[in-house]
Amino acid sequence: MCVVKLFLGFPCPGCGLLRSLWALLHLDFGGAFSFFPIWPAFLAFLLFRRYRYSGEIFLTLLFSQWFLRLVLNF
Q1: How would residue 70 be classed by pLDDT, with cut points 50, 70 and 90?
Q2: Contact yes or no for 41/58 (Cβ under 8 A)
Q3: Coil, strand, or helix at residue 49?
Q4: CA 55 to CA 8: how far, in whole Å?
Q5: What is the three-class DSSP state of 23?
Q6: How far apart are CA 59 and CA 17, in angstroms?
Q7: Taking 80 as the threshold, does the pLDDT of residue 53 lie above it?
Q8: 0.70 cut: is pTM over it?
Q9: For tag attachment on the chain, is the N or C end more exposed, with fewer CB atoms within 10 Å?
Q10: Can you tell me the distance from the alpha carbon of 25 to that of 64, in angstroms, rounded to the nearest whole number?
Q11: Contact 11, 69 (CB under 8 A)
């Protein structure tokens, strides 16, 4: 369980990432999208993190999906 969600009551920006990667290892792409919808961006960030704007793009996507999860409450 996420410590942030346990103490504060709302999920952190990275909630679901580990479960998503576990689902990917089992080739469950639908489950991976349901746990962490931007997992392709995370994998792209890991591959291209040496390029100039990869971190800013990933953080923008991360916090925008986190905000949508908070607003839509899913």
Answers
A1: confident
A2: yes
A3: coil
A4: 27
A5: helix
A6: 14
A7: yes
A8: no
A9: N
A10: 25
A11: yes
Residue 54, sorted as left (phi over 0), alpha (psi -120 to 50) or beta, turns out to be alpha
Question: Which residues make Cβ contacts (< 8 Å) with residue 24, sequence separation at least 6?
Answer: 32, 39
Question: Which tokens is 24 given?
Answer: 């990917």
Task: Take residue 39 and report the two structure tokens written for it.
Answer: 């997992």
Tokens (6 digits) for 29: 């792409």
The span from the CA of 34 to the CA of 53, in Å, is 27
Of 29, 44, 3, 35, the closest CA to residue 17 belongs to: 35
Matching residue, tokens 């998503």: 20
9-47 pLDDT, tens per residue? 877 778 888 888 899 999 999 998 888 888 888 888 888
In terms of C-beta density within 10 A (0-12 exposed, 13-18 middle, 19 or more buried), how is residue 63 classed? exposed
